[in-house]
Amino acid sequence: MKIKVFKIILALCLCVPIILTGCSDNTTEVNDAPTDNIEEQKSENENEQFTIGISQLVQHPALDASRQGFVDELESQGINVEFVDQNAQGDIANAQMIAEKFVKDDVDLIFTIATLTAQAAKQSIEGTDIPMVFTAVTDPVFSQLVTDMNVTDNNITGVVDAAPIKENLELFMDIKEDIKTIGIIYNIGESNSEVQVNQTKEIAKELGLELETVGITTVNDIPQAVDTISKKAEGLYIITDNMVASSISLVAKLAGENGLLTVSADGTHVDEGILVSKGISYYAIGKQSAVIAKQILVDKTDVKDIPVQTSPEFEKKVNTKTVEILGLTKEHQAFEGAEFVGE
Asked: Which of 9, 47, 233, 340 is 20–30 Å from 332 (CA)?
């Protein structure tokens, strides 16, 4: 009996290493298989050909810079993309037709530049699986693109172009300590602009500044609007309004002739003659948007896991010629740390 028990125990001892070895081998196989699949899938995604429809509201330096940043970033990452560029020429009906055409062509992703094109594309992608990435939108919640900056469950996300309004208004006070009134010209048809005007009113009040606003409906209204502002204010604040931006050289020229200090939320405006800006880089937020597009298309990240993003940094720029026109000097403390352009 004892011999029989001993034989059983011996047999079990011999079997245990075999079982453990077998388990070890199986475990290795189970762990290796998904890793191989992930690497194969990643390689397939990187080599995949994508089509991206780009819908830009209107051509002006800021929006052009956003588009270029988007294209440059995707190309630098080696993503295989065919870009289909369309410009709505400032017409919301065109923006709607462009978005519908992109959906009909079943593009892989729609990139919208500016609020009105984003709103048009939102309607068109409803009921489809086409993702949308927006940029140059100031308040996507107010514009009803997303319900919350962190809730992107409608297959829509992007990068906002909100500028530091308080810091821009303080620039006026740094340049002219006793300044009392500043003005804003804006397109009454852009929700993007309405948001900024309301925010600026609140912040100006906190700083003890008076704010004069003039609403316009076409670029032809701009000369009269600048004339009106110059009779009531000492400075003109340029918000990220697409209609004003499309004629920013004219705005800068008229403001200079009327002795208005000009501060902009957009650095590209300084290149066109606006005095100073502490704002976002539209090229940078275009690149930031491209990173999101890559996450969606190549990495297959679900849009609902990509919150709306803001620009991580701002740039300060000063136009040298406008400094001279307004009788200022580059050494003014308000321009400290700025990049000077227009030499």
From this structure: 233
**Which of the 8 DSSP states describes residue 179?**
-
Contacts of 178 (CB under 8 A, 6+ apart): none
Q: Are 167 and 278 in contact (CB under 8 A)?
A: yes
Nearest Cα neighbor of 171 from 7, 4, 328 is: 328
Give the position of tokens 């609403």: 215
Q: How many alpha carbons lie under 13 Å from residue 109 in its C-beta half-sphere?
A: 28
Rounded CA separation 120/117 (Å): 5
Amino acid in position 201: K
Question: Is residue 329's pLDDT more than 80?
Answer: yes
Strand partners, 170: none
**How far is the C-alpha of 260 from the C-alpha of 182, rounded, in Å?**
9
Q: What's the pLDDT at 319?
A: 97
The amino acid present at 329, given as its one-letter code, is: T
| 107-141 pLDDT, tens digit each | 999 999 999 999 999 999 999 999 999 999 989 99
Q: Which has the minimum average pLDDT: 29-38, 73-82, 183-192?
A: 29-38
For residue 212, give Cα distances in angstroms to 85, 184, 257, 307, 321. 38, 6, 19, 35, 26
Measure the CA–CA gap between 67 and 72, rounded to whole angstroms. Answer: 9
Q: State residue 34's pLDDT score.
A: 53
Q: What is the pLDDT at residue 305?
A: 97
pLDDT at 29 over 60: no
Determine the 3-state secondary structure of 132 from DSSP: strand
Return the closest-CA partner of residue 41 out of 301, 300, 290, 293.
300
